[in-house]
Structures are given as structure tokens and as C-alpha cells.
Specification:
Elements (H helix, E strand, L loop, with lengths): L1 H24 L21 H14 L4 H31 L11 H28 L3 H6 L3 E8 L4 E3 L12 E12 L5 E13 L26 E9 L9 E5 L6 E4 L3 H16 L5 H12 L7 H9 L10 H12 L13 H4 L4 H18 L4 H19 L5 H15 L7 H26 L4 H25 L1 E3 L2 H25 L4 H27 L4 E3 L4 H21 L3 H16 L2 H8 L6 E5 L8 E4 L5 E4 L5 H11 L3 E2 L2 E3 L4 H4 L2 H5 L3 E2 L2 E3 L6 H13 L4 E3 L5 E4 L2 E7 L17 E6 L2 E5 L5 H9 L11 E3 L10 H7 L3 E4 L12 H9 L3 E4 H4 L2 E4 L6 E4 L1
Parallel strand pairs: 4-6, 12-14, 13-15, 14-16, 16-17, 21-22, 22-23, 23-24
Antiparallel strand pairs: 1-3, 1-5, 2-3, 3-4, 5-6, 5-7, 8-9, 10-11, 10-25, 11-12, 18-19, 19-20, 20-21, 25-26
Helix pairs in contact: 2-4, 2-13, 3-4, 4-13, 6-16, 6-17, 7-16, 7-17, 8-17, 9-11, 9-12, 11-12, 12-13, 12-14, 13-14, 14-15, 15-16, 15-18, 16-17
């Protein structure tokens, strides 16, 4: 009967509450193991409302006001009807004995009503946030590309952005600042008050280096601005490139010094002081640790170089560079207890040892969370991290596994209602998927591994990394068009280092304003695990088989999800056969590491006895002259450190007696860190023409950091190593000869490898090519076997030099689908008309020359 059933349910719930109260009351002493499975099945009732609100927010951000209003009103009316029917049915059941026999028969109606209410709330919130982008004068001004004087309140930390190298010179460096425009002054003198989200773009002049915080650099004063600061700018208003959560882009003029009209809040000043103290405390650390530690602790990635950032992306370790729930969890674990007891009521953290009650512990955890949000900035990503950290706090404080999924659903619901733009954020999606994997899949997989005699801590770490990777990989593939094969092992290798680096980093952050020597000591200790994390990322990214290309769309994501499911099903069977597991592990290891001897046997690359190799580094140059087993002279480094490092590893190059950088354009020198990484380098030789200045300084700084001397090449210089010899034929040694630009100052080499003659022309253009032909080295240039065509095979070539060289084989380094039209069809046709075989990296991939004389050959990878 209904009344009897309700009474029984109430007595049962009261008994459960009494049992839990008794256990919690005893938590000050030594408790037995209370396992969360005693609490019954997982409560999933909040999941549908959270998912419904998420989907509604994503759809309604662009909806017209009529649609928003209609959706909200319709959902509320329907929810009211459902609840009215529910109440009427319950009243009828109580009047008619036997009409209802289940105590939970009305829950579907309640859940449906909750979904409808959440949809209505999400529609209203998304409609209001979407309207912010259409409200006020800025959208109309953006359509006219008008110039205005605006007063804006900064809402995020300024960040320095330098796009990846795509040509001879990097794109201009800019400071990006998210802000809310509060006041707009028109040319007619009218002042309009508004509140419109924008992105301010400030082009900054790079004085002497490519990193805003490197030694000898002069950082832009815009980078020192704190959130909540008000500035007055003169800017051109342009439409946003891809929509999003901003109404316009403000291209700021006269960017040397910002005009501050409102100071930041006290909380932001405190946070800025703490963050500045942490940066100062890390100044004396090694470059990687100095860059990484502020990112691990408070998400300050200003010092992260593009090379290191790319390495973290390649190994799926980018989450360590952003503030995440794990940062907060690590700190809370110190208070509440170790993660090994996350599913039990007992805790062995500082709170039980100090005799602090559970309620006080919860209050202290809340205070830590608030401080975390203030120091790491209360922007959406930090709020998301705090919400996800609160899920872990609830798990550790209550030991109720049943409460974790509802807590995550609640966090998702509140966050998408607070900031509907999160519903379209890939970062938010990845965060939720990773947290969900840790709460659902990881415990089961960990138990399965422990049942097969895997040590508990290793089982937990392996299950957590694998579960997060399984759910997040399809989304990552959409973003990067690549699937990492080293993500799980790299995450396992860095897991034990993240906690000490984070804890010591937070300690340095807290002590820096009052005791800088102590903070420096703590930062030095934290630098060791931070350096280890960076080393793992660099090593993993440099492995030849670190990842595989994958379709970067949702179809590719679906295929990857199906492949993951199939792999998991096959893995369950393989776990029963340890020998098969070991064989699969060895095969995967070989596929990732790709030892050169094995790779040569399987793929034929590099071919035996290769003399000259042209790496496929995109739109740039990077070539290698073989000088013995594992030894090679590298000419240019390309635009990407990862690509050139991978090429050298594939070629088996571990010793480099000389690196020749023909000139200082970024597509020839930006990859230098990849050449220097993990190899013995004797010297670096460059052109005497030190332009562009910032790239020349970059080369000197990289060389000084590794103790490699830098010399300058001049025509007439001759060198030899083993069977390899070469002569510098350009530029001339006369300092009075001033080239027209960096290209015409390129170092050109005439190389002899046994009986093979090669001419490497850098990026010489026709004026310098004609001067080279008239120089004392001109008569030596005739009848070469291999020509590295100048300037990526551009249309600007001197016919006289091509005729004099008369190469049998012409090789061109160019990027696929480059916007420069390289190689030019006319240049290719002219070379073929001379009888040369013409190959280019954009079509044929990496190239390697073998043999000599009649045995001259070339192979591609």
C-alpha cells in the first residue's frame, strides 16, 4: 500500500542517516573501512537537466528574442502542467487505496518538469548573453570599421600571441586583451554608455627577442595590466573573425603606453602581487622550469615558448599548462586526505590529524577554493576548474561515490547558466568528459587491474589516464586532426611530478610577498619536478611515431570513438593472455620509437649510404649533409623545432659538428631549438648580415643557452669533416658590400661528398645570383650533381646561374599548399629543360640523395 510503502522508505532512509551520522561522528578517531557501495546505485536524476541546459544554451545564443521567449514560456507552462498532474495524481492516490503501489512512480514527471525548467532558464540566460553582442553602438561601428575612443574594463590577463611561422618573417606580435567596453566617445562629441564584450588587439614592437619575459627584452606595458583595470584607448572597431563571445575587435592605435583611467580592484591587486612574486621566485630556474612552474600553479603561461607549447599539445599534456580541477584537488588533498582513500569515509589528511571536524574541514576547503579563484582569476576557465575541484572535495570529504555524478551535473548546470558561452567551449567539454571519466570509468578499470594483480597505485594512475584519454581523444582529434599515441604513457610519467611541483609552487606563491629567499628555495625545489614534466613532453613529442594524422572533423571523431570501443573490447580479451599483452606492448613501443635500423628495414628510409637529405619541414629549409655514422652537418633549421627534430631523429643524427644558418629569416632559423635538442653540436655558423634583428638575437640566445659558439661565414672559407668538405662561395668577405636584404646575404655552399658535388644556394635572389656568377667562385660552380634550388623554387632565378650549374638533380624545399606559389612552374620547367630531375618536398616529402656518378639516385620517405 502507498502509506505503508512511504513509511517503510522513510524509516529506511532515517536508519541510513543514523548509520552515516554514527560513522561521521567517529571520524575523529581510527575508523573501519566504510565502503561506498553500501550507499546503493548512482543517482542520475540531475544528469538530464544538466545536459538539456547545456544543449539549450548552445542553440539559443544566436536565437532571435522571439524564439527565446517562446521556448522559455512554453517550457514553463508545460512544466507547470506536469507538476499539476503530478500533484493531482498523488492526491487521488491517497484518496483511493490501492491506486498506487510504488513510492517513486511520480519521479519521471518530476524529472521531466525539472528538465523543462532548466531548459527555460538556459534559454533566458543564453538569450540575454547573446543579446549583449547585439546591444549598443559597437556592432554597427564594426560594420563601418569606424575609429572611436573607448573606455574598457579588462576582464582577463593580457597575453602575448605570436602566430606560427608561415614565411620568411613571423607575423607581428600582438597583445590580446579581453574586455568590456563601458563608454564610447563618438567623433561628434556624443558619449554612449554600454557594456559590450570585445577583444582588444595591441600590436607591440619586438625589441630584441621573441619572448616577452626573456633576459634583455623590454616587455610591453600592456602585459602588466590587471583584470578590472579601466583603460582609455583609441581604436579601430572591426567585426570579429569567427563570432564567438565578443561583439567586435578593437585594433588599438598608439599602443606604447596604456592610458589607465581606473585602478584594479583590491582582490586583483593582491592576486597580481602574488603572481608577480611567483614569477620573481622562478627567475633563477632553468628555462623550462621557469616557464612551466607559473603555468602549473596559477595558469600563467606567459613564459611558455611556442616550441614547448607545441610539445605539450603533441603529448596531450596541455591540460597541465591550464588551471584545472586537479590543481585545486592537490591542495585539498593536503587538507582532507590522500586520493587513495577517495572512496572511503576515513581521511588521513591534515584536518583529521589536527582534530578538525568534518564541517570545519568543509569550510576550510571552501576558503581554499575561494582563494584559488581569486589568485587564478575568476574567468570562466578558472570557475570551471573550481567547480570540478569541488566535485573532488565532495568525494574526499564525504566518501559518497553516489554523490559524485550529481555534483558534476550540478556544476555543469550552474556553470552553463552563469556563462552560456561555456556550452560552446571545447575546453569546457574536455573538462567535463575528463571528470566524468575519472568518476565513472576509472574506478571500474582500476578495480579490474587490481584483480589482475596490478599494484593499487599503478592501477589507479593507469585507469585514470586511460579513461580520460578514451573519452577525450575524439574531441582532441577534432581540434588537432591528430591522435597521440604517447598520451597515456606521458601522463603516467608526469603524474607523480605534478603534485610536488604544484604544492611547492603554491608554497612559493604564498611566501614570495613576505619572504622572497624562502620562496626562491621552494621554487628551486619545485623546479626539479617541473623540469621533469617539460622533459617528458619534449621527449614524447620528438618521437617519430608520437601521433598519427586523423580527420579533424566530427566524422573523424565518431570513427575514433568506434575504434576506441573496439580496442577496449579487444583489450578485455587480451588481459586474459599476458603474453599477447606483452607482444602488443612491444609492437606499440616499436611503432612509437621507430628505431632507425628497424625503420630502415621496414620503410627503406633513410636509404643506406645517403649523402644529402632534405627534410620536409613545411615552408622552410632544413637540409643535412652526411658526415659519418650518426654525424651530419645541418644547413638551416626550418620553421618548426618539432619537425626538424623528428627528421634528424629519423636520420639517426646525434652529432652535429656544424650548423649553418644561411640567413636569419624565421623559416630558416626558428627550428633551431629542435636541432640543438639532445645532440652534440660543435658550432653554429651564420651570415654576417644580422637582419632581421629579433631573429638574429634569437639564434644568439639559443646558442648561448647551450654553450655553442657562433661564427660568421665568408666567401673563401673551406672546411672538412671526414669525407665531407665544403667551400663558402657567398657572401663576400668585403664588409663594404651591403646586400639588398637578408635573402641576398644567404650563405651559399659548394659541397663535395666523395665524388658527389652539391650547390646549396640558400634564398639568394637574382641580383646576388648574378654577383655570385661573376665572383671568384663562379668558375667552380659548373656541372654540379645536385642543386638545392634557391628560395624554395620561386620564380626569381637567374638563368645564367642555372645554366652554369647545369644540375642533374634539382631539389626544392617548399610547404604543401603554401600561399607563395612555390615552387614556380616556370622555374621547374626551366630546370627540366636543362635535363635536370626536379623533386620538391611539397609533393615528394623528405628526400635523400645516394650514390654518385652513374649511380646517383634519390629516395623519398
Amino acid at each position: 500500500m502507498r502509506e505503508e510503502g512511504e513509511g517503510y522508505d522513510d524509516r529506511r532512509d532515517e536508519g541510513r542517516r543514523g548509520t552515516r551520522a554514527a560513522v561521521h561522528a567517529a571520524s575523529g578517531g581510527r575508523l573501519g573501512a566504510a565502503h561506498p557501495r553500501q550507499e546503493g546505485p548512482t543517482d542520475l536524476r540531475l544528469v538530464p537537466p544538466a545536459l538539456a541546459a547545456w544543449a539549450t544554451s548552445a542553440v539559443m545564443l544566436d536565437a532571435a528574442p522571439a524564439w527565446v521567449t517562446g521556448t522559455a514560456v512554453g517550457c514553463l507552462v508545460l512544466a507547470g502542467v506536469l507538476m499539476t498532474l503530478r500533484v493531482g495524481r498523488v492526491g487521488w492516490a491517497r484518496r483511493v487505496p490501492g491506486a498506487m503501489t510504488g513510492g517513486r512512480s511520480g519521479w519521471p514527471a518530476v524529472t521531466a518538469a525539472a528538465v523543462l525548467v532548466c531548459v527555460a532558464a538556459a534559454a533566458v540566460s543564453a538569450g540575454l548573453h547573446g543579446a549583449d553582442l547585439r546591444r549598443g553602438p559597437l556592432p554597427g561601428l564594426a560594420e563601418r570599421y569606424a575609429t572611436v575612443i573607448a573606455e574598457a574594463e579588462i576582464t582577463s590577463d593580457p597575453r602575448l600571441v605570436r602566430p606560427r611561422v608561415r614565411g620568411p618573417a613571423p607575423a607581428p606580435t600582438a597583445v590580446l586583451i579581453e574586455a568590456d567596453v563601458r563608454r564610447v566617445e563618438m567623433r561628434d562629441g556624443a558619449t554612449l554608455v554600454t557594456r559590450t564584450p570585445v577583444l582588444m588587439v595591441v600590436d607591440v614592437e619586438r625589441r630584441r627577442s621573441s619572448s616577452a619575459f626573456s633576459a634583455g627584452d623590454r616587455p610591453s606595458p600592456w602585459l602588466a595590466l590587471l583584470p578590472s583595470t579601466r583603460v582609455r584607448v583609441t581604436a579601430r572597431v572591426v567585426p570579429p573573425a569567427d563570432g564567438g563571445d565578443i561583439a567586435a575587435v578593437l585594433r588599438v592605435r598608439d599602443p606604447e603606453v596604456p592610458e589607465v583611467v581606473g585602478e584594479p580592484s583590491a582582490a586583483q591587486r593582491l592576486a597580481g602581487r602574488l603572481r608577480a612574486g611567483l614569477r620573481e621566485a622562478t627567475d633563477g630556474l632553468a628555462p623550462d622550469a621557469r616557464a612551466l612552474l607559473p603555468g602549473l600553479v596559477v595558469g600563467d603561461t606567459a613564459r611558455i615558448t611556442p616550441e614547448l607549447d607545441e610539445a605539450f599539445k603533441e603529448t596531450d599534456l596541455a591540460h597541465t599548462l591550464a588551471v584545472s580541477g586537479s590543481n585545486l584537488t592537490i591542495i585539498l588533498v593536503l587538507l582532507v586526505g590522500p586520493p587513495g582513500l577517495a572512496q572511503r569515509v576515513e581521511r588521513r589528511g591534515l584536518a583529521p590529524r589536527l582534530g578538525i571536524s568534518l564541517r570545519t574541514t568543509a569550510l576550510l576547503g571552501g576558503a581554499l577554493t575561494l582563494g584559488f579563484v581569486i589568485v587564478c582569476r575568476p574567468d570562466p576557465s578558472v570557475l570551471r576548474a573550481a567547480a570540478c575541484g569541488a566535485v573532488a572535495l565532495l568525494a574526499l570529504a564525504t566518501g559518497r561515490r553516489r554523490s559524485l555524478i550529481p555534483a558534476l551535473a550540478t556544476a555543469v548546470l550552474l556553470l552553463v547558466l552563469y556563462d552560456p558561452w561555456l556550452s560552446r567551449s571545447y575546453g569546457f567539454l574536455l573538462s567535463v568528459l575528463a571528470t566524468g571519466a575519472l568518476l565513472t570509468l576509472a574506478p571500474r578499470w582500476s578495480a579490474a587491474l587490481r584483480a589482475r594483480r596490478v599494484p593499487p597505485r599503478l592501477a589507479e594512475a593507469l585507469a585514470a589516464a586511460a579513461a580520460a584519454q578514451a573519452l577525450c581523444a575524439p574531441v582532441v582529434a577534432v581540434l588537432s586532426a591528430r591522435v597521440s599515441l604517447v598520451a597515456v604513457p606521458c601522463n603516467l610519467l608526469v603524474e607523480f611530478a605534478i603534485a610536488p611541483a604544484t604544492v611547492l609552487g603554491f608554497a612559493a606563491l604564498a611566501t614570495a610577498p613576505w619572504a622572497m629567499p624562502v620562496a626562491k628555495a621552494l621554487a628551486w625545489c619545485a623546479g626539479w619536478p617541473a623540469g621533469w614534466i617539460a622533459d617528458v613532453a619534449r621527449t614524447g613529442a620528438a618521437l617519430p611515431g608520437a601521433g598519427v594524422d586523423w580527420p579533424g572533423n566530427w566524422t573523424g571523431a565518431a570513427l575514433l570513438a568506434l575504434a576506441t570501443v573496439a580496442l577496449l573490447l579487444a583489450g578485455r580479451r587480451l588481459l586474459r593472455h599476458p603474453w599477447w599483452c606483452g607482444a602488443c606492448g612491444v609492437l606499440l613501443l616499436l611503432a612509437v620509437v621507430q628505431p632507425p635500423p628497424l625503420t630502415r628495414v621496414v620503410t627503406g628510409w633513410p636509404p643506406p649510404g645517403w649523402r644529402f637529405a632534405m627534410c620536409d619541414v613545411g615552408q622552410g629549409d632544413a637540409t643535412v649533409l652526411a658526415a659519418g655514422a650518426g654525424t651530419g652537418v645541418v644547413v638551416d633549421a626550418g620553421p618548426d623545432p618539432v619537425l626538424v627534430d623528428r627528421c634528424l631523429r629519423t636520420l639517426g643524427i646525434t652529432r652535429i659538428p656544424l650548423v649553418v644558418l644561411t640567413h636569419f629569416h624565421a623559416d630558416h632559423v626558428a627550428g633551431l631549438p629542435g636541432v640543438l635538442r639532445g645532440r652534440q653540436v660543435g658550432a653554429i655558423e651564420t651570415t654576417a648580415y644580422q637582419e632581421p634583428v629579433d631573429q638574429a638575437e634569437f639564434v644568439r640566445r639559443e646558442a648561448a643557452a647551450r654553450g655553442v659558439p657562433v661564427t660568421r661565414a665568408a666567401a673563401g672559407e673551406e672546411r672538412r669533416t671526414g669525407r665531407l668538405s665544403w667551400r663558402v662561395v657567398w657572401p663576400p668577405a668585403d664588409p663594404a658590400v651591403v646586400p639588398e636584404g637578408p635573402n641576398d646575404a644567404s650563405v651559399a655552399l659548394l659541397v663535395r661528398s666523395a665524388g658527389l658535388r652539391l650547390l646549396l644556394l640558400g634564398d639568394l635572389e637574382p641580383p646576388a645570383q648574378r654577383a655570385l656568377l661573376r665572383s671568384p667562385a663562379g668558375p667552380l660552380l659548373g656541372g654540379v650533381d645536385v642543386l638545392k634550388v634557391a628560395h624554395h623554387g620561386s620564380a626569381y632565378q637567374d638563368p645564367g646561374l642555372l645554366s652554369r650549374a647545369a644540375p642533374r638533380l634539382a631539389l626544392i624545399s617548399a610547404g604543401a599548399d603554401n600561399t607563395y606559389g612555390h615552387p614556380a612552374p616556370g622555374t621547374v620547367a626551366a630546370l627540366r629543360a636543362m635535363g635536370a630531375v626536379v623533386l620538391s618536398t611539397d609533393r615528394d616529402g623528405a628526400l635523400a640523395v645516394t650514390g654518385e656518378g652513374a649511380e646517383l639516385g634519390v629516395a623519398g620517405d
